[in-house]
# Entry
Amino acid sequence: MAKAISRDDPRPLYKQVKTHILNTLYGDGVPAQAKIASERELVDQLGVSRITVRQAMKELVLEGHLRAQPGKGFYATGRPRRGYEIELLRSFTETALAHGKVPGSALLAAEAVAPPSAVAEGLGLVSGQLAVSLKRLRLLDGKPVAISHDWIAAELAPDLLTLDWRMGNRSFYAELRNRYGLFPHHGQTLLSAALAGEEEASLLRLERPAAVLTVEQIAYDTADRPINMTYSVHDPANYPLRLEQG
# Structure
């Protein structure tokens, strides 16, 4: 199991603490009104400062995940979240767990190939260089909600295809971080809408004509080196997207 907190992770420590608490709340199925670990306990468990934990708790209270009771601690609200955040640096698996959903996937294709020109350009590949193509149907509580197609230069992740990508909760970004030391730091996201194609409608169980959301993302490391590109198609009814600002 990956460590909850990593100094190599480009996300601020309080964001990592926040993700850890969300995964505990929803991944472990903490019931509404249940008391969670105290600030002091989280400081000891995660090896961070109390200020860091307090910032994470403050955001979770503001977002409605926790209720603070002065002198007694923090309690789960059990309040469902509306929409799924568009976050370049968090995987589908982590997002699903943060919403109390069971993530799953069905492998559609996994191969090392010469990428399309747009992918090669985005990843900074020259003629002859291969990219790993990983295409999966993503599930929430067993229901298909999105199709994701990840691309990464083969030389950055040489044995990626030896992993069992049929596992429902295997996280692409977790493997990049933990296996290859690749940490997406920033990037760009392009949102659009389209009509589902025949294959997309079949996989997502949509009746045509049906509108879908399309997301194109590219992530870079701290040196502005492109790490991976992702193209995904979302069922807007079962996987609505939300952009948090502030």
